[in-house]
Amino acid sequence: MAIPTAFSLAKLESLSSSAAVATPAVSIGLFCNPGWVRRVGIQKGLGNSGIRCEVAASDVLDQSQSSGGNVTSSSSSSSSSLSALEQLKTSAADRYTKEKSSIVVIGLSIHTTPVEVREKLAIPEAEWPRAIGELCNLNHIEEAAVLSTCNRMEIYVVALSQHRGVKEVTEWMSKTSGVPVTEICKHRFLLYNNDATQHIFEVSAGLDSLVLGEGQILAQVKQVVKVGQGVTGFGRNISGLFKHAITVGKRVRTETNIAAGAVSVSSAAVELALMKLPESCHATARMLVIGAGKMGKLVIKHLVAKGCTKMVVVNRSEDRVSAIREEMKDVEIIYKPLTEMLNSAAEADVIFTSTASETLLFNKENVLDLPPVASSVGGLRLFVDISVPRNVGACVNELENARVYNVDDLKEVVAANKEDRLRKAMEAQAIISEESKQFEAWRDSLETVPTIKKLRAYAERIRVAELDKCMSKMGDDISKKTKKAVDDLSRGIVNKLLHGPMQHLRCDGSDSRTLSETLENMHALNRMFSLETDISVLEQKIRAKVEQTQK
């Protein structure tokens, strides 16, 4: 009985091992991993765990393969056992090579993960292209995107195998962040295909935000597309998913009133600070904003909206602060450089931090040295830190005269009007459901692309061969004009003949044709024109991955 190739065996267990190691026997193990296939209701706190069992063959070969490729048994019982093993192994290989690539999201959000973990996993926007490249170098990852904000760290991939892809991405996250795999698995959520599509649509629409309907997340989703343009690995499936998510986000905000009265993280931070201050000092408390980026600018705007007429802004450069000052000419905005940060903090009652610094700006020691604040403002210096990674150490809370609040503490502000926000979310869900079906129809239509390419190539080979025969019969003295006319004629005939079959291979929602009908047409054309190849499209991709790792 013939042993399968080293490649077939290796891809069952791991594509990272491309060379077979000779050992006395082929071992096959059965393993079950809970939680690989689960849909988590993130905002509702629901979780359904499933168990997925796979058959794994080791990537080692019998020593006898090198000498003849056959295994001989001295007893019938041994031969029968080997036969059963061989069937099991072949079945697993067949299942694997026919597995369809999946869209997968591996995520950690404010709903599932504390900020102490999220900040370690956060990836700065400038590092997204590098991250996409590294993810796509993994054996089972074909496309990738990173969505990293103060409230979430989510990685979207097209995986050639679901559980192998998840395993590789999780290990990559652990390696790049220093967070153990067990800790990541404790907090992560995994969503596949339709669930992953629905999730990013909900995210873009603001349904998964801490503040329902907030607009900043849509801008962040747009930024993923902007950064991903031209990056190898930000491919057709993932880019199509995020572009469609932007469309959904815009449509939800246009057709529903979900954004009416919605607040952002920045406005929630201002609300939280005012909740903690005595009401009598709202207009007189000394405000300091550290960081004049998008979040910092929004903090300033919301402070002004609440009646603040004077504040200090610390930033690396004065340009942004000057621009903000031009917009709000009726407000006294005093610029201070970063070197003056501690001196400015000493004169402030409330300090907002929103910088991209990866190191702490305030710790227990330097806050301890600050002078106490007046009893009229509560006797506590308030730090409202909306940065991820955090700018203010949690240890500051150990001091008697200071309190620190981070993005996770904003839940206290947005807990109000929960019923009203959920009613708005229901209106948006109908739109998301409709858009999800459209995206899935588009993605399903991609399954026929290989057949379309093969049919065109088949027709082109026939056209070129017959054209060469025709030209040889016409002789060498024909003019270029005649040659072009004959060539154009042959192309026109082929295109008209292919038009009907091509139309029946498209399933993009523009007609009443169902996916099943389209796939039936695809299989029929494959049979009629012998377009089927010995190696599936997925297996070709897997082979390419293995060859890439060998270089």
UniProtKB/TrEMBL annotation:
<dbReference type="InterPro" id="IPR018214">
    <property type="entry name" value="GluRdtase_CS"/>
</dbReference>
<dbReference type="InterPro" id="IPR036453">
    <property type="entry name" value="GluRdtase_dimer_dom_sf"/>
</dbReference>
<keyword id="KW-0560">Oxidoreductase</keyword>
<feature type="domain" description="Glutamyl-tRNA reductase N-terminal">
    <location>
        <begin position="106"/>
        <end position="256"/>
    </location>
</feature>
<dbReference type="Pfam" id="PF05201">
    <property type="entry name" value="GlutR_N"/>
</dbReference>
<dbReference type="GO" id="GO:0006782">
    <property type="term" value="P:protoporphyrinogen IX biosynthetic process"/>
</dbReference>
<protein>
    <recommendedName>
        <fullName>Glutamyl-tRNA reductase</fullName>
        <ecNumber>1.2.1.70</ecNumber>
    </recommendedName>
</protein>
<comment type="similarity">
    <text>Belongs to the glutamyl-tRNA reductase family.</text>
</comment>
<feature type="domain" description="Quinate/shikimate 5-dehydrogenase/glutamyl-tRNA reductase">
    <location>
        <begin position="272"/>
        <end position="413"/>
    </location>
</feature>
<dbReference type="GO" id="GO:0050661">
    <property type="term" value="F:NADP binding"/>
</dbReference>
<keyword id="KW-0149">Chlorophyll biosynthesis</keyword>
<dbReference type="GO" id="GO:0015995">
    <property type="term" value="P:chlorophyll biosynthetic process"/>
</dbReference>
<dbReference type="Pfam" id="PF01488">
    <property type="entry name" value="Shikimate_DH"/>
</dbReference>
<dbReference type="InterPro" id="IPR006151">
    <property type="entry name" value="Shikm_DH/Glu-tRNA_Rdtase"/>
</dbReference>
<dbReference type="InterPro" id="IPR000343">
    <property type="entry name" value="4pyrrol_synth_GluRdtase"/>
</dbReference>
<dbReference type="InterPro" id="IPR015895">
    <property type="entry name" value="4pyrrol_synth_GluRdtase_N"/>
</dbReference>
<dbReference type="GO" id="GO:0008883">
    <property type="term" value="F:glutamyl-tRNA reductase activity"/>
</dbReference>
<dbReference type="Pfam" id="PF00745">
    <property type="entry name" value="GlutR_dimer"/>
</dbReference>
<dbReference type="InterPro" id="IPR015896">
    <property type="entry name" value="4pyrrol_synth_GluRdtase_dimer"/>
</dbReference>
<feature type="domain" description="Tetrapyrrole biosynthesis glutamyl-tRNA reductase dimerisation">
    <location>
        <begin position="427"/>
        <end position="531"/>
    </location>
</feature>
<comment type="pathway">
    <text>Porphyrin-containing compound metabolism; protoporphyrin-IX biosynthesis; 5-aminolevulinate from L-glutamyl-tRNA(Glu): step 1/2.</text>
</comment>
<dbReference type="InterPro" id="IPR036343">
    <property type="entry name" value="GluRdtase_N_sf"/>
</dbReference>
<dbReference type="InterPro" id="IPR036291">
    <property type="entry name" value="NAD(P)-bd_dom_sf"/>
</dbReference>
<keyword id="KW-0627">Porphyrin biosynthesis</keyword>
<keyword id="KW-0521">NADP</keyword>
